[in-house]
Amino acid sequence: MLNRVHDHIVSELNQSSRTDTIFVVTAIAFNLIVLGINSSVADAASRRSGNTVDDIVLIVFIIMTILMNTIAISALNLGKRTRQMLLDGLVKMYSDNEVEKYYDPSIMSNYNARYLLFSGVIGTLALTAIAVPLIIRFL
Question: From CA 135, how far away is CA 126, in angstroms rounded?
């Protein structure tokens, strides 16, 4: 029975990693695409004076960028908490079976740092996808 529990926890960890990867890749791709679209729209709007349609498109994409990145970072935070709970259970299982010495606890802090870095990349790209088109449009 212990082997089944162990396999289930490892399976959940793998699923959590795949889900996190999907959110990170999706957010990065979305931000880069929106950066290109909004930069083009902002450039076109700055060449023509007061084009309302271009400004509306720019605003909609900015709102969607904020929403998309909020969802992605929230999902990463949930993934981080899930991974922490699963690893805590795994370490407890290892401790109960006196094999915890083979698991380096610093791995936990490495995972936390990785989630922080992923969130930083997503947030930085989101700010870039918002700021650059606004600079093009209004300066």
Answer: 14
